[in-house]
Amino acid sequence: MTLTIRPATPQDVALMLRFVRELAEFEREPDAVKATEESLTQALFGERSAEAVIAEQDREPMGFALFFHNFSTWTGRKGLYLEDLYVTPEARGSGVGTALLRHLAGIALDRDCGRFEWAVLDWNTPAIDFYSAMGAESMDEWRIRRVSGDALVKLAGRS
After folding, report:
1. What is the set of domains in the chain, with CATH numbers?
2. CB 79 within 8 A of CB 118
3. Burial group, residue 83, by CB count within 10 angstroms (0-12, 13-18, 19+)
4. Which of 1, 21, 117, 124 is 20 to 30 A away from residue 140, measured at CA?
């Protein structure tokens, strides 16, 4: 069996949205997904604010990763931020997640990124252990902050 990782195409949007919904279900937030095929198509292939790759085993989709560039003023260089990494339940433990992370690490090096970062839920012990085994450091002193919805509108001074 051959594992391949390839750039996502517009024909993969429905598959990626399915994977996003499965990930949201796993992360106990099934109703949080507001993305649509149209919004993913625009983000990935219109404005190109993000990119994605698909992992396939013998042409069968086994997972995906969606990522984009951020920037660090401390390093003075762009970084690669992994927004979502998803491996189908039947493919977990088979090396698909490792292959996706290695592929993205290679993209980060090829693009002269100073960092490769992502977030993981604090209760997702299998993922935390997996990422630690891959050499990822936990940034426990940092807390992610988010403003969205009505709070974003209010912060912007628009009501």
Report:
1. 3-155 (3.40.630.30)
2. no
3. middle
4. 21
Distance CA 52, CA 9 (A): 9
Q: Which two tokens stand for residue 87?
A: 């491996």
Question: Which residue's entry shows tokens 């190109």?
Answer: 48
Please say if the pLDDT value at position 1 is more than 80.
no
Q: What is the pLDDT of residues 78-88, one digit of tens each?
A: 999 999 999 99
Neighbours of 136 (CB within 10 A): 15
Whether the model clears a pTM of 0.70, i.e. scores above it, the answer is yes
For residues 144 and 81, give the distance between their C-alpha atoms in angstroms, rounded to a whole number: 14
Task: Decide: 52 and 98 in contact? Cβ < 8 Å.
Answer: no
Say how far apart CA 55 and CA 48 lie, in whole Å.
20
Whether 131 is catalytic: yes
Distance CA 53, CA 19 (A): 12
Nearest to 66 by CA among 8, 130, 26, 124: 8
